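4.2 Preliminary Data

To establish feasibility before requesting continued support, the project team ran the inverse folding procedure on a target of 58 residues. The structure was first converted into the token representation described in Section 3, and no sequence information of any kind was made available to the design step. The complete token record follows.
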């Protein structure tokens, strides 16, 4: 079972929120409905692999 860390960063790279999950599922949910509109970065960390995605919330 892999631990997955999901981090939400603002446009300046400041960490806004972080969640850790112990999951083997292919899908995880991360609620940003209460965050203001803008550009964010979503960082997903699994073991030593880090993936960063740009997210635009309207």
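Position-by-position output of the design step:
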């Amino acid at each position: 079972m892999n631990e997955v860390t999901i981090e939400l960063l603002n446009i300046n790279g400041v960490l806004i929120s972080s969640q850790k999950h112990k999951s083997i599922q292919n899908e995880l949910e991360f609620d940003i409905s209460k965050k203001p509109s803008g550009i964010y970065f979503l960082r997903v960390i699994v073991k030593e692999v880090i993936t960063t995605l740009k997210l635009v919330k309207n």
